[in-house]
Amino acid sequence: MTDRVRSYRYVGPAEVKAAVQPDGKGQSIRSRADLDGWMAERPAEELAEPFTFVVDTDGVLRLAPRRSEHVACAGGGLVLSAGEISFGRVGGGWEVREVSNHSTGYCPDTTSWPAVAEALGQVGLDHPSGFTQQVVFRRCTTCQEAGIVREDDYVCVFCGSDLPATWNVDPRD
């Protein structure tokens, strides 16, 4: 990874983070065997849709069912990236088909991809060369709402103000 890796703090609703159970982290995936075992336990309907993922500050991929909160998958902690990930069968194993940084709780920048690529590489998974869906998050400097930039329109959907060109979602950064 690069010398300066940004970690992301949860910036979503406080009540969601307050509901996180300390032992409720997502499944750590450190090897193909970890992934194979975890996937074997998933019902067919879960396998058909993306999973929630985070890369924790140790660079470990953590997975949870799609409707899980990213902050719960991270056990309430900081992350290097977060989003949704889809897998497909290839031969006798799995490969990553799609991966995004879509997490409205952490709002990671698109520049968090190297952390994801490294975590997937450590597991030995084939994966795309970048996020297959990049989500651009910004915080409005006028109304302080965080939101998604759509179609390169850097205008706040809440108040109409211009949004900054660079990531600024965490007010503590």
Instruction: Report the sheet with the most strands, covering strand number, pairing sense and barrel closure.
Output: 5 strands, antiparallel
The number of domains is 2
SS-based structural class?
alpha+beta
| Number of beta strands | 7
Global morphology: globular
Q: Strand share of the residues? A: 15-25%
- Share of helical residues: 10-25%
H/E element string? HEHHEEHEEHEE
Question: Mean of residue pLDDT?
Answer: 94
What does this structure look like?
There is one protein chain. The chain is of the alpha+beta class. The chain folds into two domains: 14-134, no CATH class; 136-173. It has helices at 14-18, 32-40, 44-47, 70-73, 113-123, and strands at residues 27-29, 51-56, 61-64, 79-90, 93-100, 136-139, 146-149. The strands form two sheets. Strands 1-3-2-4-5 form a five-stranded antiparallel beta sheet. It starts with 13 loop residues before the first helix and ends in a 24-residue tail after the last strand. The relative contact order is 0.17.
